[in-house]
Amino acid sequence: MATKYGTEIRDVAKFSKWCYCPAVMVRQPRLDAPGILHHVRVRGLERHRVFRDDADHADLVAQGRLTVYAWALLPNHAHLLVRTGNGPLARAMRCLLTGYAGAFDRWHKRAGHLFQNRYKSIVVEEEPYLLELVRYLHPPGGCHRPPPGLER
Questions:
Q1: What whole-number distance in Å separates Cα of residue 62 and Cα of residue 99?
Q2: Which is it for strands 67-73 and 37-44: parallel, antiparallel or unpaired?
């Protein structure tokens, strides 16, 4: 059966198979509730340094509206163990990361994005994983490997 453009319907079917686009992956909502513990990870854009000196480290931890229990601030990324307050984690992290990025840009006379993608967060069950996560974030030997059984 010819169409206006001289192709047949079966050719269109072949084209649609060739041009198949899977369903768009939608971001899943974050699990969040007041008073929940989260393991939050944030990485520098293209894995560049986001901390250049001790003042940068101190500024990130001091800026937030979150209760920070433990942290590991590596040159190109950070891990935080935080407890949310009455507001959602997303609002507190937006204030924390936007404030830090603006201050970092001013101090180091740079412009542009500082962080890569959104931050990652995992809800931490207090009983089984809290102590293991703190050991992971503050290792005695300074190595940075996840303990067995702890998801990254």
A1: 11
A2: unpaired
pTM: 0.69
State the CATH class of domain 37-137. alpha beta
- The candidate with the shortest Cα–Cα distance to 37, out of 131, 147, 135, 144, is 131
CA end-to-end span of the chain: 56
Which tens digits make up the pLDDT trace of 27-79?
677 778 888 899 999 999 888 888 888 777 777 777 667 888 888 888 888 89
- What is the rounded distance in angstroms from the CA atom of residue 80 to the CA atom of residue 39? 6
Give the CA distances from residue 65 to residues 72, 103, 151, in Å, rounded to whole numbers and listed in that order: 18, 16, 26
